[in-house]
Amino acid sequence: MDSLLKIPEGVILILGKVDSGKTTFTLFLVNAFISEGRRVAVVDADPGQADIGPPGTLSLGFPEREIQKLSEILPVRMAFIGSTSPAGIFMWPTVWGVYDLVKFARERREIVIIDSSGLVFGRDGYTLIRSKISLIRPDLVVFLGEEREYIHLIEEASRYSVVKLFPSSPSVKRKSFEERKANRIRRWKNYFTGSFEAELYWDSLKIGGFPHFGVGIPFPRERLRELSLELGTTILWAEEYNGMLKCLTFSCPKGDFEVNLDWLSLESLKHTLVGLEGREGLIDVGLVLSADGNGVLIKTRCVRLNEVERVLLSKLKVDEEVFRD
Ligand SMILES: Nc1ncnc2c1ncn2[C@@H]1O[C@H](COP(=O)(O)OP(=O)(O)OP(=O)(O)O)[C@@H](O)[C@H]1O
Ligand SMILES: [Mg+2]
Predict the structure, then answer these.
(1) What is the pTM of this model?
(2) 108, 202, 220, 292: which is deepest, by most CB within 10 A?
(3) Band of pLDDT at residue 325, cut at 50, 70 and 90
């Protein structure tokens, strides 16, 4: 352990299965480095049990003094995932998100510690970890648990990094599904405390966000009116993908039309977690309160709304409880 703290500078990636003690170990390292006067960055790469930013995002923070919990760290930069799991299609935003945060952190702090999600097994776990390791090239990879569980990943990690393995503490407490959900709601509630309502207008916005939008060729804005007439409802955004027209609609399209349509109506956006993206990437997140033909009313902490160019939709519905005052 002492040799670990002697690392002059670099990136430390903490890996382990669910409930193996990754976040606790990250916290220990943060405090140990800070107590030695080292400048530390923490990348929270777990969009589920997120500690620094809200769930559904990855985040980066710069702790300035010793802390009791990672949630004391303020997010200075975030990446939008739009899911509480990095599995499946969300793997790519997770990988490019972690990469971006680590790059930003590396330029500003000596030590960058990455706390990860517990997705380490199976095809998704292997792909996620291999991608992270190949792109980030951490100086040190720490596995928590038993060697036999991670042998294939240790082999990969050893190509680029020093690898350390520590057994999980026998005091590790497992979190139930309900506890995880309650943690997420608490984190969202905290994040949106002090937020305000703001309206964003469709005519000046692009739409993106997996799994609905963001991968197709945008339909020309000047032809949306024509398309709306054809489909019998206002079309706020459309993109072509795989012979299909994916649309954000005011209501259910009506009538006979030729196109192969996949649509999402405004009504279904209520309580959705959205990313607010500017020219240089994610600015902040918001929660949809309502939407109409003009725009979308959100709850947000974002003070740079004039820079928002794109709203990233998601399938994440934030619990009613978060909206209660
Ligand atoms: N070394 C330890 N001593 C005592 N308790 C611990 C220790 N490590 C972890 N715990 C406890 O076990 C629980 C799970 O730990 P932790 O949240 O660090 O795991 P994790 O691997 O980050 O979990 P997740 O997969 O949800 O991210 C927590 O309640 C934590 O306080
Ligand atoms: Mg954790």
Answers:
(1) 0.95
(2) 202
(3) low
